[in-house]
What we know:
Elements: H1 7-42, H2 46-56, H3 60-77, H4 79-88, H5 90-109, H6 116-146, E1 150-152, E2 158-160, H7 170-194, H8 199-228, E3 233-235, E4 252-254, H9 261-265, H10 271-289, H11 292-314, E5 317-319, E6 329-330, H12 338-365, H13 372-377
Antiparallel strand pairs: 1-2, 3-4, 5-6
Helix pairs in contact: 1-2, 1-3, 1-6, 1-7, 1-11, 1-12, 3-4, 3-12, 5-6, 6-7, 7-8, 7-11, 8-10, 10-11
Amino acid sequence: MSVPLDYATLRLIWWGLLGVLLIGFALTDGFDLGVLALLPFVARGDGERRMVINTIGPTWEGNQVWFILGGGAIFAAWPLVYAVSFSGFYLAMFLVLAALILRPVGFKYRSKRADAGWRGRWDWALFTGGIVPALVFGVAVGNVLEGAPFRFDGDLRMSYAGTLTGLFGPFPLLTGLLSVTMLVLHGAGWLSLKAEPGPVLDRARRWGQAAALLAIALFVAGGVVVARGGLGYRLAGLVDATGPSNPRLATAIASPGAWLDNYAAHPVMLFAPALGLVGPLVALAGIRARRDVLVFAGSSLANAGIIATVGLSMFPFILPSSIDPHSSLTVWNASSSRSTLFTMLVVTAVFLPIVLLYTAWAYRVMFGRVTIAQVTTNPDSY
């Protein structure tokens, strides 16, 4: 099959698409996680809890599509990254999946019985299904920035030297808390749009204000650690952007502060960390002015900016190795074949707009605030 795009361009396109899918997941399913993380703190009483749950009830299943698309894109476009991350981080991934399984079960079973104890236990299960993935996803990002303890031998057999407890170091915990705060802010933004005026909305605004301030502080703290804490990797020597996907052909070195190199070389990239800081400020302004659309817009900008900052800082690295930098996986040495990337690009160009159009239509149909009266009288409500 004749491929009209060169290999290096296709690799760049798929690197960008992976970022788009991750941001799409954060912007959609991210507010689901944030709302569930806020559930015990913004809702008091069964009616309020049911209202909060039903603000995401019609959309959470569709939002999970972005999580599946992201995993599928890694599997198909970056098979070496998929192999290393899903093998090395297996226990952490299992923890996330176990928590996510609680979400559909909690939605379906919570209101099957009127017993307060029964419903309270499922409420805590839903909270776990929100807070644990939000934390572990951020911890995973921190480990990626630090470098994962893996290496390839001469036959490209991978060995991983890490443990589950080793994933939760100081810096990964910092990025995990940043992930929690930015998703809690996003959840508060969603409740600002969907919850009826009253105590729940007021509490959501207060928690959103605290989350916005913490997100700014943790984002800045993370930047200081990256700049002064010895984090970063660089490619050494010439790089063949059209060469075969073989991590043993590249030469990489650990280089403190290297994650900031791209911003010095390409100042236009500073738009990403700027969004990461401006977004929470916009959300704060929206909360204080009681402009609900502005709150959600600000939380969306914060999520997009923080995720883009990680990707642009690390380029061209996708998953560096902390114990053998020469085994690090980059945009240039970890992709599928040229024909595979092109075929998937054609498929994506056809189906991604369909997903976006359907998602927009679904949100338009289900637009509007959820009230306690609605959920207590509608037998189809959770």
